[in-house]
């Protein structure tokens, strides 16, 4: 059972539970997916294999390369994309997603309208401000669903930062909120980490919630203050050949491959 299988099973077990449905789409957006192609990519242009199903069009994606091989009954050309980049690429094209069809428990058809909704939901970009909290406190009053979503999202941010702390924060003027503070983020990974936190908030089902994101070096005295009161999240260490998020073709949602 892959993480996508588990999220799909939870959604199927509780069809009336909006939170379970949101968690599935969150997992889909945060996963690296294998998109079946008609031919090998040509630069930044790809030609997905498109299948008609009940007068609709679908491309096929899988969360494991071996699942694509099983479906195709042998090697097949593919492109590896994040779910976020795939949704951005397909938005407005009238094309749905066939996920793990016939080869996994998470086999599902997602119609074009739902793909458009996912792309629109993911399109909100965090706002950048220059503001440092005046006081920190342990996080309090946050829904368990949000903490679970943050933990799942950060578990996929391999090698992008050393750790993160979730704290309560009070700013100049008395504004209070919560801050997710990353320590020793890889240069260039900040936008991807900010999006991951924003997505966790969006798909946790918390209405009208906000969560600030900050980046600090371990040498900054502020990092010691975070460690004293914060809820710590340890991010997975980088693989032997680490890549900054968005460096691989198709993995940057702001520059998805182009259909041809």
TrEMBL record:
UniProt domain SseB protein N-terminal: residue ranges: 9-101
Kindly give the Pfam families that the UniProt entry links to this protein: SseB
Q: Which domain of life is it from?
A: Bacteria
Q: Where do the segments described as Disordered lie?
A: 239-260
Q: What is this protein called?
A: SseB protein N-terminal domain-containing protein
């Amino acid at each position: 059972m892959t993480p996508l299988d588990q999220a799909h099973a939870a959604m199927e077990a509780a069809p009336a539970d909006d939170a379970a449905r949101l968690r599935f789409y969150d997992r889909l957006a945060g996963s690296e997916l294998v998109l079946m192609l008609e031919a090998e990519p040509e630069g930044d242009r790809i030609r997905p294999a498109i299948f008609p199903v009940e007068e609709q069009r679908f491309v096929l994606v899988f969360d494991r390369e071996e699942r694509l091989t099983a479906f195709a009954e042998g090697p097949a050309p593919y492109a590896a994309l994040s779910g976020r980049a795939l949704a951005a690429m397909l938005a407005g094209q009238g094309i749905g997603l066939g996920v793990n069809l016939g080869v996994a428990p998470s086999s599902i058809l997602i119609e074009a309208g739902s793909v458009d909704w996912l792309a629109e939901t993911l399109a909100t970009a965090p706002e950048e401000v220059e503001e440092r909290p005046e006081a920190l406190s342990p996080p309090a009053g946050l829904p368990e669903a949000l903490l679970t979503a943050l933990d799942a999202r950060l578990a996929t941010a391999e090698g992008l930062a050393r750790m993160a702390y979730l704290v309560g924060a009070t700013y100049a003027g008395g504004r209070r909120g919560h801050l997710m503070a990353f320590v020793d983020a890889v240069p260039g990974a900040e936008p991807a980490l900010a999006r991951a936190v924003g997505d966790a908030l969006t798909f946790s089902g918390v209405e009208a919630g906000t969560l600030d994101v900050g980046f600090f070096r371990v040498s900054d005295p502020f990092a010691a203050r975070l460690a004293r009161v914060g809820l710590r999240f340890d991010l997975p260490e980088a693989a032997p050949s680490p890549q900054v998020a968005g460096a691989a073709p198709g993995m940057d949602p702001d520059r998805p491959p182009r259909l041809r």
